[in-house]
Amino acid sequence: MSAYESECCTADQPDATISLLTKKDFQSAQEVKWCPGCGDFGILSQVQNVLPKLGIPREKIVFVSGIGCSSRFPYYLNTYGIHGIHGRAPAIAMGVKCANPELSVWVVTGDGDSLSIGTNHLIHCLRRNLDLTILLLNNQIYGLTKGQYSPTSEFGKKTKSSPLGTIEQPIHPIPLALAAEGTFVARTVFADQAHLGKTIEAAARHKGTSFVEIRQNCVVFNDNVLGTFTDADTRGDHWIYLEQGRPIRFGKDGRKGLAMRGTQPEIVAVGEGGVREENLIVHDARGASNSQAYLLAGLAPPEFPTALGIFRQVEKPTYDDLLMDQIDDAIAKNGRGELAKLLNAGTTWLVE
Predict the structure, then answer these.
(1) Residue 289 CA to chain centroid, in angstroms?
(2) E-strand spans in the chain?
(3) CA distance linking residue 120 with residue 182, whole number of Å
(4) Which of 63, 103, 104, 169 has the most CB within a 10 Å radius?
(5) Quick one: which of 311, 305, 86 has its CA closest to 177?
């Protein structure tokens, strides 16, 4: 078992009854409707693979979505679900979790949903650290509304709404999540189903807000946006798999590595020019500082490969636990109270 697999599978084993659930139990009767070749099919499949492993009954799982292609997810899962409004999925999910902390709450959203009108809700959800899981499907385009540039589209992108090329700089989801002090921040890609499944499972098992950016193409309006990133023959040179406590290596047979030259990262050839494995950066997602996570999140083509895996994974008190503690303390001190008395307490006015 790899370090990554060990990291993903440390939760208690589910009880015997719930463990009998299978992937099929989480498939709804709805016909799955996305464009042929869309990465959403693979993402849905991996979510349905992960859910039986968690040992949580279906009636205690809620999927919340906003607006976009990704927001069809609640229809395709045999759990509770809410198809919300544009950008508000994190806000709805926060309300659901606070109303019933026993629920396993998931948000499935897209780059046009949560990084445009919903950016503030996403940021506040991350900083509050409620115990829920956010899957952000990033294809760098507005797919449902037929191909306008999105907040994550690259500078100069020509689309129906930017025929001369967009003059906006893109939002980068991972640095944004790190800036909001997310306690679990990760990136994966639809083209690597094994890594996708492991990352989703690790996120689901984390206590706190888990944020996973899932990179993908839009086969109709933004096909091949990831380019060689998804080419099985060459992607080893374009991806870095982050593993906790391991030196950062990539490329064929791990011959390349990432080292620091002063304050800047550089690509080195392991075994050449006196470069040894101990000269490489050792990945630490669990450190107190965000500095390494920011550095790795900033790696981008063509100068560097793209980093995949868990950038940050730390434990902090969750908002929902703290909220319930406050409520319990208030009840212990003052009793349960009565609504009618509360409405008539304090300073009141009589309007005649």
Answers:
(1) 20
(2) 61-65, 80-83, 104-110, 132-138, 184-189, 210-215, 239-241, 249-250, 256-261, 264-269, 306-313
(3) 14
(4) 63
(5) 311
pLDDT tens profile 163-209: 999 999 999 999 999 999 999 999 999 999 999 999 999 999 999 99
Residue 339, in any domain of the structure: no
At residue 134, what is the residue type? I
Q: What is the CA radius of gyration of the chain?
A: 22
* Among the listed residues 157, 125, 121, the one whose alpha carbon sits nearest the alpha carbon of residue 139: 157
Burial class (CB in 10 A: 0-12, 13-18, 19+), 261: exposed
133 and 198, same domain (yes or no) = yes
Please name the helix (run of DSSP H) or strand (run of DSSP E) that holds residue 325, with its range, or none: helix 319-334
Residue 163: exposed, middle, or buried by beta-carbon count in 10 A (0-12, 13-18, 19+)? exposed
pLDDT digits (tens, 9 = 90+) for 130-165: 999 999 999 988 888 888 889 988 898 898 999 999
User: What burial class does residue 310 get, using C-beta atoms within 10 Å of its C-beta: 0-12 exposed, 13-18 middle, 19+ buried?
Assistant: buried
- Containing structural domain, residue 91: 3-246+283-323
Asked if 167 and 14 count as a contact pair (C-beta separation under 8 A), the reply is no
Q: Is 200 exposed, middle or buried (CB count within 10 Å of its CB: 0-12, 13-18, 19+)?
A: buried
In a domain, 60, yes or no: yes
Could you tell me if 79 and 133 are in contact, meaning their C-beta atoms sit under 8 angstroms apart?
Answer: no
